[in-house]
Amino acid sequence: MPRCTRKGCAQEFDPSTNTEESCSYHSGGPVFHEGLKSWSCCQDINKPVLDFDEFMKIPGCTKGSHTDEAPKVEPQAPKPSPNVNLTMTSDQGATETYSSLSRTTGAATPTIASSAPAEPIPPAAEEEDDPSVPVTPGTICRRKGCGKSFVSDEVSRGDGEESVCTYHPLPPIFHEGSKGYLCCKRRVLEFDEFLKIGGCKQGRHLFAPKEKEAKTEEFIDCRVDHYQTPAEVHVSVFAKQTDKDRSVVQIETDKALSVSVVPLTYSDLSTQKHPLSSISERKWS
Predict the structure, then answer these.
(1) CATH number for the domain including 149?
(2) Where is the composition biased (Polar residues) (predicted)?
């Protein structure tokens, strides 16, 4: 079956049952600003997120029919040429031409090359699929850049071609307008082209990650910001995937505050990818 090419959808669809209510997509473009990711069409509805996987899960805000047509790319306006010629004609018919061509010299611009070799990217601890966990047909592979749907255990978890996953093992990177993945060198400017970057590694699909072994509890420091008004003190603790039922905020004295932030367990994160296994505790006085 064809796959929808609208932003935020990417689902396979049956043309015979395709209606104007079948597709939920984003009519605007992606917005990346200071680490936050959102869609220009629904910033007032869906809050910006930090994690790219969470950004890809933001539900579409526009209804329509599925389509497999390639998205249209708006042509870029031509850049003005730095070389400008100005011609002036006097009353006597004389013509003068002025040019803004920059002067060049025969000396070549020196190139400075760094002698220090680039540090290799450490291998990422990749999750493995658990074949004992049943998967609903149509479930999308969780690996970045794959996009294949689960058909059956024999097809998607067997030994045939459909069981081979071509994906990106490292997260995406967005820098000064360019988009790509840390694991490969290709960089593009358009977000639609970024979604088409083929994977650089082959392995097995990831439909149901294996449950990780429980790690020894450890304490870490979270990022903490605070500001004070004449009547109040506002404290913000930044921590991902926290368990609000087990986390505790306790006022010890009029000048001391204790905050214990507890993360969710892996069983609580069946739909997430990167659970935390640590506790953060900070005191202010």
Answers:
(1) 4.10.1130.20
(2) 82-106
Is the model's pLDDT at 229 over the cut of 90?
Answer: no
Which residue is associated with the tokens 């790690």?
215
Same domain, 197 and 148: yes
Kindly state whether residue 20 falls inside one of the protein's structural domains: yes
| Nearest residue to 193 (alpha-carbon basis) of 70, 25, 81, 97 | 70
Q: Domain limits at 179?
A: 125-210
Quick one: 232 and 205 in the same domain? no
Q: pLDDT tens digits for 126-153?
A: 888 999 899 999 899 999 888 889 999 9
Contact 277, 215 (CB under 8 A): yes
**Structural contact between residues 156 and 207, judged by C-beta atoms closer than 8 angstroms:** yes
Judge contact between 169 and 201, C-beta under 8 A. Answer: yes
Instruction: Give the pair of three-digit tokens for residue 129.
Output: 């699929």
Cα–Cα distance between 267 and 243 in angstroms, integer? Answer: 12
Q: Residue 270 falls within a domain, yes or no?
A: yes
Could you tell me which residues come within 8 angstroms of residue 179 by beta carbon, excluding any fewer than 6 positions away?
172, 173, 187, 188, 189, 191, 193, 194
Is 186 in the same domain as 227?
no
- Is-contact 273 266, C-beta < 8 A? no
Does 98 fall in a domain? no
Domain count, the chain: 3
Residue 86 belongs to some domain of the structure: no
Beta-carbon contacts of residue 268 (< 8 Å; ≥ 6 apart) = 243, 275
Residue 207's pLDDT band (cuts 50, 70, 90): very high
> Is 2 in contact with 13 (CB distance < 8 Å)?
yes
The pLDDT score that the predictor gives to residue 222 is 79
pLDDT category of residue 166 using cuts at 50, 70 and 90: very high
Grouping H, G, I as helix, E, B as strand and the rest as coil, residue 161 is helix
pLDDT over 70 at 104, yes or no:
no
Q: Report which of 183, 143, 149, 150 is spatially closest to residue 167, judged by C-alpha positions.
A: 143
